[in-house]
Known about the structure:
Chain A is an alpha/beta fold. Chain A has six helices and five strands.
Amino acid sequence: MDRRQFLLRALAQLPTAAVISLGAGCRGQRQFARIMQPGEETMMGSHQAGAETFEPLVHEAVSKLLARHAGQPIQQVSFQESVETLPPPPSAKRICFVGVENKSAEEIGDFKDQLYETIDQRILESQVFQPLNRRFVDAGLRDTRLRPDQLFVPENMRAFAAHMEQQGQPLDYLLYATVTSGTTRENREYQRDYQLTLEMVEIQSGAYDKQSAELSKGYHPSRLSRWKAAHQAGQQ
Amino acid sequence: MRGRAVVWGIVAGAIVVAGGCATHADRLHRVRTAFHQGDLEAAERFVAEDLEKHPGDAEVLDLDRAVVALSDGRPQEAEQLLRSVRDRFDHLEQESAAEDAWALFTDDQQQAYAGEDYEKVLLRALLAIANLMQDGDDAEAYSLQVAEKQREIVAAALLPDGTNPKAAYQQVALGPYLRGILREQTHRDYDDAARNFATVVSWQPDFLSGKEHLARASGSSHSRRGHGVVHIFALVGHGPCKVVAEEIPSSAALLVADQILSSQLNQTLPPTIASIKVPRVLAAPGVVGGVRVGMAGRLLGQTETLTNVSNLAVAQAAAVHDLAVARAVVRRTVKKSTIYGAKEGLGVQHFSPVALAFDLAGVAWEAAENADTRCWGLLPDTIQVLRVELPAGDHTLTLQAVDRRGVPVGRCLPCSVSVADGRNSYCVVQAPDAGIIGQVLANGP
């Protein structure tokens, strides 16, 4: 084929390709959704932690904390159960869940409030503690102008407890949750260890308790490297 | 006789095609002028007229309608418009092979407008501001979407070789700022607030108040007891707009290439006489430099630039400029090939009158192209903010637009705002050429 023929064919094919593309179609619907069934495997966050990380962390950390403080075995509660709960027994200790602090390397975005509500709900359902309503907690923080991280200074803690008592919301414990992470890199792959820590302080005595749960997650640049990592883990 | 009729037919058709249409930039001019002079009624009427004549450009015109509605004290309408454009832009981000192909035979104006990257981010930020002027329930979700969209845009531009032309995009600091002030107001999520203000400081280092916000969120409280905070958002100056720019070097190179090919092939190619046109983003900041806020004869402060929309738009356009030129060159090649193919198919003789007519038609077809100058025309030059801590209660602030030397521009307007203990209140003003225009919006808890 000489140069002239080559150019001729190339030129002739350009508009043909364009015309074929014309009939190739338009934009379709881009977004699809479905209801995920109870017990169905959650999606895996490909770039950061998601439900697959936080749900087991919350489950483990809260269970450990409740188990330690329950006078009797903890009633297991699944995530999907009804939100209707029985009122806590009169002896239940009143606990103020101050908030969740994110100290991890990732922005957890809308998960933060979700974490708060999940932990709060599980504590309420356990009937080991009686959590204060979040709106009272928020109002107390606003009125006293104390930051959550300042509440663990004894003087601030007493001032906050006194204020809450004045508002008709006496409390026995303060609870604080912290999400942290540690990252280990190996070229383009990395492992991130997530930890959820629950810290609890008894207001009267200042006694301190702490429970945590950990989960490690590997991030891979390709399906193949993810498969290789999973395969190696399976062999060990 | 028949040959002459064919020649005249081709030339007449080409002249009709080459007649061309006014670009979006031409139509936008009167809208911008009316709006910048504070004539909201005229601006709204002009946009409505354009919408009637060009329903295909509904998305970009709705963006302008939203700005006018916000300025005219209708934040709910503004939010509805912006939300619908956001959803349409998300849909239009998908490639349409048919539209892409049609654009190869015509120009980029024939494609549905999916919005520039900065527009997609800013519309979410303005959604948050419009929502804060109502109940504010969705403002936090919108502010999260600002960050999410920015991440998505950069991630989607990753090329197979690992490079990313959009990685150097300047990010919109308004998103994390909004999230920071909303999280700070909870009195519980100071860590979130500090993280977001740290992002603001890193993305917009010349926003001097950013460091104060970061320091406060890291170790202090939202406000003193018995006090609340008023956040003033000022949309200041003229935003960027697109104009038609001629790509002379690329056009000259293409002309040389056609001549070489014409001498090598059976038929001549239409010469590149009409230069290649691409859109160029122009910054035209205007005279207003900020808004001074006072109370009871006392100056409380002046708004400070948090996001420079013009700089953002110019930089983003520069990052994807080569792509726009490449698309225009491909279009020319397709058009030349089509003319060539038609001449070959019809067995037109080299240098015959019919061949000349085809070349003339080709030139006219190429000249009919225009650059796609569609853009969000009523964006401000800068989005500025001021945070003022005031005792709880009702207050009347005074707002005065000033130029870059501090000389007042336009009238000084009062703004009644209600401040609650430990809570945020918000004010929004728009200040293009004529000083503060439309209504000053205020919303308290």
